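thought: fold this chain, then report.
action: predict
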Amino acid sequence: MRMGRETGGAERQRSAHRHMPWDNAVSEEKPNEKSRAIRARQRAIGRELRRMYDDVAQEPVPDDFLDLLRRIDDAEDARPGKKVS
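observation:
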C-alpha cells in the first residue's frame, strides 16, 4: 500500500535531516572544538552579512524614492492645522 511508503519516506526525511553533512564534522569533535567551530562559523556568517549590508548601504538612494519623500513632505507642509515641531 502507498501509506507504508509515505510513512517510510517521511521517516527517511527526518533521518536525513538529523544527519546533514555539515553537522557531522561538528558533532564528531570534542565539546571545546565543537564550540570553537560554531563560533568560527558564526563569525564567518557575521562577516559576510556585514559585507553585504555595507555594499547595500553605500548605494545611492534612487531618485524616484527621493521624489516620493519630497512629495510627502510637501503634502504635510500644505496640510491645514499642521503642528510646527
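thought: worth noting. The radius of gyration is 27 Å.
final: C-alpha cells above.
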